[in-house]
Every structure is written in structure tokens, then in C-alpha cells.
Design a protein that fits this description.
Layout: H1 10-24, E1 52-60, H2 65-68, E2 73-78, H3 91-94, E3 100-102, H4 104-116, E4 122-125, H5 131-143, E5 150-154, H6 160-165, E6 172-175, H7 182-189, H8 194-209, E7 213-214, E8 220-229, H9 238-249, E9 254-258, H10 279-291, E10 296-299
Parallel strand pairs: 2-4, 4-5, 5-6, 6-8, 8-9, 9-10
Antiparallel strand pairs: 1-2, 1-3, 7-8
Helix pairs in contact: 1-5, 4-5
């Protein structure tokens, strides 16, 4: 299966790019809708302009096995985020915004270098605020021989309109399903109306790429991967999320139930999330997923 972006004409790709940059002139690239002109250097919530900011890149072997394969997932960590999670493990990148501004040609070269290294995909971490620059670089890289899948690794606080514009660019969507309780989403991630935004985003992602498809070696080529991070004291609201996935997305959705929460950054300011999760808390989330007949559960000892 060829990457989906190879199926678009050059003119179609240019049209997608131009539409994304047009949105930046009165920015509504994400649900925050800051209405600043990022093309002219005005800064909204993400503090970004029109250019890509990158912290690091390289083969990543800590992702899901369907992405890692033999040679790793070609991961690019983008600077900044449109959420402010108090427990963010990458807060130096997402909140302190460490990284370097790079030209479109340089980002394209990074993509091609990762492909040359044997990586099975280009894994875009926190792409949402920078998707316009990413598409511009993808066009350049495609013309120079890029031919591995694109992974959109997101917190799911994504604009439905933006997702519809980039339809045909992304092979694998990998959203978080963080919270079902909007009060908790706003308290711990500064994400108003997160659950509604997340649901709309995941529905659109599923409509675009469907359930996960892998090649004969078990490496992902196209489809949806949903991540759910188990939080202490049922903060994530797991039951409602699993019900949504089962009834509105697919019982065959690839679901990664993640156990790696640990308190860092500002988490110690909140007693209820100032500890690691317990084995029992993790097992309860797995049981809930099975209760809703979700068939492709991935995680610790599953």
C-alpha cells in the first residue's frame, strides 16, 4: 500500500498548503481560534509563527510495535503544543518551547533522512499548530522521493475544519483520548470543551483512514490508533471514552491503553494526580475496554 499523499496531484497538494496558510492569517488552525495573523508574526496560544519549530528527530523505538517495526518510527518532535497539561512529560518542548526554527527545505530533508535510515514512517509529534509548515515540507520531500507513511501524533484537540483540509495527507492518525470530563480537561490541560472536540476529531480521522491496516510484517500502513493514558483516581473518565469508541468509532479500533503516567512538571500541585497509577487502576481500565467489546487492545501485558 502506497502512502496516501502519493495519490494526490501536485496541484491538489499546493491547494491544501495554500488553504492552511490562509487560515494562519486569522488563525483558526486549532479549536482555540486565536485570530492572530501568524504570517505577520503575531503570536497566539502556541506562540508560533508560520515556520516549523523542531526540537529533535530520529528513529524512535518506544512507540507501538506496529510503528516501530525493525528500524524504528521516524519521529520528529515539534516545539510547542496547543494544550498545557500540568503533567506533561515533554514540558521542556511543549511548554518552555525549546527548539529551533527551520526552513521548509530543512524539514523536508529531515523526513528524507529518516526514510534513508530505514524508519517505517514519519511520526509527527504535536503537529497541530504546525500542520501548514509540515504540509509545505511534505510537498518538497515527496518531489525528492519521500514514500513512507505519515503519522499524525496528536492530543486530539484538533479543528474539524483543519482535519478536513488535510484529508489525503495523513496515512495514520494517532490521537490521544485524554478526558471525558470537560472540567478535568480544563483543570489539568487548559482544554475547554475537550471531550466534544476530541470526539469530532476522532470521528473525522476514522472516516478518513478507517481501522488500522498493517503489511505482512505487521507494520502499520494506514488507519487509526487511539491512545488512552490511565490517570490516577479515574481522572480520565475512562468508561465514557470506551463507550464512545465502541459505539461510535469501531469495536476493532486499535487502542493503546498506556500505563506510563508519572507525576512531573506541575502535577505535584494537584494531590489527586501527584502519584503513579496502581496496577489495579490499570487493570480496571483494561476491564472496562473489554466490557465494551473493544477487540484490539494494546498495552502492558495484554
Amino acid at each position: 500500500m502506497n502512502p496516501i499523499y502519493l495519490e494526490l496531484s501536485f496541484d491538489e497538494l499546493i491547494n491544501i498548503r495554500d488553504n492552511l496558510f490562509l487560515i494562519l492569517e486569522n488563525c483558526e488552525i486549532c479549536p482555540r481560534k486565536c485570530h492572530v495573523n501568524r504570517i505577520k508574526g503575531e503570536k497566539g496560544y502556541c506562540k508560533l509563527g508560520k515556520s516549523a519549530f523542531v526540537f529533535s528527530y530520529g528513529p524512535h523505538f518506544g512507540e507501538e510495535s506496529v510503528l516501530v517495526g525493525v528500524n524504528g518510527s521516524g519521529t520528529i518532535f515539534f516545539t510547542s503544543c496547543n494544550l498545557s497539561c500540568v503533567f506533561c512529560q515533554n514540558y521542556e518542548i511543549s511548554q518552555y518551547r525549546r527548539g529551533d526554527e527551520i526552513a521548509p527545505e530543512e524539514l523536508a530533508s529531515i523526513m528524507l533522512k529518516l526514510q534513508t535510515m530505514g524508519c517505517h514512517n514519519i511520526n509527527l509529534v504535536s503537529p497541530t499548530p504546525q500542520i501548514s509548515a509540515i504540509v509545505e515540507s511534505t510537498i518538497i520531500a515527496r518531489e525528492k522521493g519521500l514514500k513512507i507513511p505519515m503519522v499524525y501524533n496528536t492530543n486530539a484537540y484538533d479543528s474539524l475544519e483543519t482535519l478536513r483540509i488535510i484529508n489525503g495527507i495523513i496515512d495514520i492518525y494517532m490521537p490521544d483520548a485524554k478526558y471525558s470530563d470537560n472540567t478535568n480537561a480544563e483543570k489539568y490541560s487548559d482544554a475547554p470543551e475537550y471531550f466534544e472536540v476530541m470526539k469530532n476529531a476522532i470521528r473525522e480521522m476514522q472516516n478518513q483512514v478507517g481501522n488500522l491496516q498493517c503489511n505482512k510484517l505487521g507494520i502499520a500502513e494506514r488507519g487509526l490508533i487511539v491512545r488512552h493514558l490511565v490517570l490516577p483516581n479515574k481522572i480520565a473518565g475512562t468508561e465514557i471514552i470506551m463507550k464512545f469508541l465502541s459505539e461510535e468509532i469501531s469495536k476493532n479500533v486499535f487502542l493503546n491503553i498506556m500505563d506510563q503516567y508519572y507525576p512531573c512538571f506541575k502535577a505535584f500541585n494537584f494531590k489527586e494526580i501527584s502519584r503513579k497509577i496502581t496496577k489495579e487502576e490499570y487493570e480496571e481500565v483494561v476491564s472496562i475496554a473489554r466490557k465494551y467489546d473493544l477487540k484490539k487492545i494494546y498495552g502492558k501485558n495484554i
